[in-house]
Amino acid sequence: MRINEVSGAGAGFVEIYNAGLIVFDVGGWKVAASHTDGGAPNDRFTLPQGTRIPPGGFLVVMGSLEAGVTCTVPQGVPCFLGEFSISNANGETMYLLTPAGKVADSAQYPAGKIGKARSWGRLPDGTGAFENLTPTVGEKNAP
Predict the structure, then answer these.
(1) How far apart are CA 91 and CA 68, in angstroms?
(2) Residues near 22 by Cβ (< 8 Å), separated by ≥ 6?
(3) What distance lies between CA 62 and its chain's CA centroid?
(4) Distance between alpha carbon 75 and the CA centroid of its chain, in Å?
(5) For a pLDDT cut of 70, what percent of the chain falls above it?
(6) Rounded distance between C-alpha atoms, residue 115 and residue 99, angstroms
(7) Contact criterion met (CB below 8 Å) for 8 and 115
(8) What proportion of the chain, given as a percentage, has pLDDT over 90?
(9) 34-79 per-position pLDDT tens digit
(10) Element (H, E) at 61
(11) Helix (H/G/I), strand (E/B), else coil: 19
């Protein structure tokens, strides 16, 4: 499981990608963050039990601190609303934690370097370096 794309536009979102060859149950896994000051990760959202991501598939957790936020993703992509936002100005380190609290993956969202209509994502999906991208929520990343 990899953090594949992060955006601070609006309330923000975190996209998880299954780079494996089998369906993966991420129930009980957590999406967490810490500010760029290096603090410990804070739990932001726990994925519900029974949540599965198919091989090559995506899962999205949308920030929902702003009024009217809804999951707008392609059909069949699991999407959840979490009570968080991601700071474009301050940056954050996002974490994907196992149910036991071990860091499975992390992504540093840089402070002040991603435009309001942009995202920070891996290219190619799941394996590449993070780049400043056009948001592709729940879909393959593109420049």
Answers:
(1) 24
(2) 55
(3) 8
(4) 18
(5) 91
(6) 33
(7) no
(8) 62
(9) 865 556 677 679 999 999 999 999 999 998 766 667 888 899 999 9
(10) strand 58-63
(11) coil
Residue with tokens 């309330």: 11
Break the chain into its structural domains and give their ranges: 2-133
Residue whose structure tokens are 């991420």? 26
Count Cα atoms within 13 angstroms, Cβ side, for 142.
7
CA distance 134 to 132: 7
For domain 2-133, the CATH architecture is Sandwich (2.60)
Distance of alpha carbon 84 from alpha carbon 98, whole angstroms: 19
**Would the pLDDT of 23 be above 70?**
yes
- Give the Cα separation of 15 and 3 in Å (integer): 6
Side-chain-side CA neighbours of residue 140 (13 Å): 3
Region of residue 50 (phi > 0: left; psi between -120 and 50: alpha; otherwise: beta) = left
pTM of the model: 0.92
Return left, alpha or beta for 48; rule: phi > 0 is left, psi -120 to 50 is alpha, else beta: beta
Cα separation, 99 vs 25, whole angstroms: 11
